[in-house]
Amino acid sequence: MLRIAVAAFLGLFSTAVFSQTVLIENVRIFNGVDHRLKPGHVLVVDGMIETVSKDTIDAPAGVRVIDGGNRVLSPGFIDLHTHLAGQNPRSMEKYHPTVAGANAAAMAKHYLDSGFTTIRDAGGTHPDFARAIEAGLIYGPRLFPSGAVISQTAGHGDFRAPHDPHPTLESGSPYLGHGGSILADGVDQTLMAARENLKAGATQIKIMGGGGVMSEFDPIHSLQPSPAEIRAAVQAASDWGTYVLAHAYTSEAIERLVVNGVKCIEHGLLIDDKTAKLVADKGVVISTQLVVYRTLQDLPGVSERNLRKLDAVLAGQENLVRLIRKYDIKTGFATDFIQGGYTMLTREFTERAEYWTPAEIMVQATSESAEVIRMIGKLNRWGNFGEIREGWVADLLLINGEPLEDISVLRDPESALALIMKEGEIVKLRL
Ligand SMILES: [Zn+2]
Question: Measured in angstroms, how far is the CA atom of residue 336 from the centroid of ligand 1?
Answer without folding.
Answer: 5
